[in-house]
Amino acid sequence: MLGSTRTLSSFKVGDKVTVRVPSDxxxxxxxxxxxxxxxxxxxxxxxxxxxxxxxxxxxxANFLPGDLELGHVGTPRSTDRMNDAFNALKLAAGTDLVAVxxxxxxxxxxxxxxxxxxxxxxxxx
Length: 125
What we know:
This protein is α+β, with helices and mostly antiparallel strands. It is 34% helix and 20% strand. The chain contains 2 helices and 5 strands, in the order βββββαα.
């Protein structure tokens, strides 16, 4: 990445990394999570632990240091991000429904909290 301060010495074997928009590698690696397996003379070699697309899990690819960010940042897979968005929408709808029921006097605040907790637990499972 232009202007990046990361150099080869920024990485060591075993470091967890996230691929940023690769400057000279296929874009399908963008947001992939991986582990540094070797540090070469110009590139960092990364095993894809959770690639942006499942087909690339376990693959080893090499990147310029500026194409990597230390740590696993964000959610790599589009399907996981979509599921997170749908779950957030479902949680918000459930919370709104409970608020309407409490405002109408159908349920108590305590019951509302129990319903919200049960709904959140259901969405996680």
